[in-house]
Amino acid sequence: MTQNIGDALENSTSEASLAHSRKISEKIEQAIKEDATQFRVLTGDRPTGNLHIGHYFGSLQNRLRLQEAGVDTWVLVADYQVITDRDGVGPIKDRVYSLVTDYLALGIDPKRSTIFAHSQVPALNQLMLPFLSLVTDAELRRNPTVKSELEATDGRPMSGLMLTYPVHQAADILFCKANLVPVGKDQLPHLEQARVITDRFDARYGRPKGSDKRVFPRPQGLLSNAEMVLGLDGTKMSKSKGNTIELRMSADETAKLIKKAVTDSDRHISFDPVNRPEVANLLTLISLCTGQPQVEIADEIGDGGGGTLKKMLTEALDEHLAPFRARRAELEANPDYIVEVLHEGIARANAQADATLAEVRSAMNMVY
Fold it and tell me: How far apart are CA 317 and CA 286, in angstroms?
């Protein structure tokens, strides 16, 4: 009984927090329209595999939108985070270059956005030391990502890097003084941890000598309005499940995967996310490609069955991704340019990180 009451209170608090975050996001969107230059956004991906259409519709399109709106955009290739929950790095170098290639093919402009890998920015990672002095073991273990990882270990020891994962994320955000982070509702606790660190740093160590400004801004979350895209088997899209369509795949590879997508036995196509989630998911993907509402697409297919639905999705994805595929092919033919872009982004990130660390040392009275 007590546990049920506790769960109910936690859910109520969570819903209230989510509603509050949505209101803040609405205000931020309006502020971006009025003056995008007041924002710096930090976003990125772990190079654990190739980017897929879930990333594309869930975050990459929004990332591009913010860049085009004039927001100073920093895109992180979170290579160190690969080893938070893995025993090795795998073909990480190829995956890092693949991510950068995808970013550029999608339209991320290295003249307006900074693309970098955090393993190459020593001063960023050095921020972990003072930041760790500002959090407790109990706080870290309450973080939803850490908590779920701890439960998944089934009693096996959890790495120190996994435990401090939220602090490393805070360092990623704060080293470049990002004040805006695009997030899903599951990432809100990580952002709150970053805000806690900024407040405690200011309270404990103060400001750099001769400055009345905080070292770190309080970053806000910009909640995504993207629709949840499931994998081709009707479950959560995941690289480890093999139920994704990777952006780098050819039209033929994409068509073969879509043919294997899960639907159901009812030939009449209808948009019913509750009772027919697999069919609804394919309709949503078509809608995301074409802009046509799911219900209209379903009505158009009618009794055409799953075969017609899959054919329509294949055609919609091919048309939508054609410019990306063409641009990616050009970029793959010029690997030196990919390296150059990454090196330039890393140099920019190092300059920013060194400047931030200098402020941190000044505030902590550690300039000798």
Answer: 7
CA distances from 117 to 100, 125, 299 (A): 10, 11, 46
What is the pLDDT at residue 308? 96
Place of tokens 């070292």: 215
Beta-carbon contacts of 111 under 8 Å, excluding residues fewer than 6 positions away, are none
Q: Which phi and psi (to 5°) does residue 269 adopt?
A: -85, 125
Q: How far apart are CA 239 and CA 246, in angstroms?
A: 9
Locate 257 and state its tokens: 């995967």
3-class secondary-structure state, position 159: coil
Q: Which two tokens stand for residue 231?
A: 């994998």
Q: Which residue from 58, 326, 65 is spatially nearest to 187, judged by alpha carbons? A: 58
Tell me the HSE value of 168 on the side-chain side, using a 13 A CA sphere.
21
In the structure encoding, which two tokens stand for residue 299, read together? 């009505």
Q: Which residues contact 265 (CB under 8 A, 6 or more apart)?
A: none
The list of the chain residues with pLDDT below 50 reads 1-3, 5-10, 12
- Give the CA radius of gyration of the chain: 22
Amino acid at residue number 241: K
Strand stretches in the chain, DSSP E:
40-45, 72-77, 113-117, 180-183, 220-223
Q: What is the pLDDT of residue 325?
A: 94
Burial group, residue 132, by CB count within 10 angstroms (0-12, 13-18, 19+): middle
To which residue do tokens 């000798």 refer?
Answer: 368
Read off φ and ψ for residue 74, nearest 5 degrees: -115, 125
Torsional sign, CA 139, 21, 149, 198: negative
Whole-number Å distance between alpha carbons of 131 and 164: 10
Q: What's residue 6's pLDDT?
A: 44
Query: How many CA atoms does the CB half-sphere of 193 hold within 13 Å?
Result: 29
pTM for this one?
Answer: 0.90
247 close to 324: Cβ distance less than 8 angstroms: yes
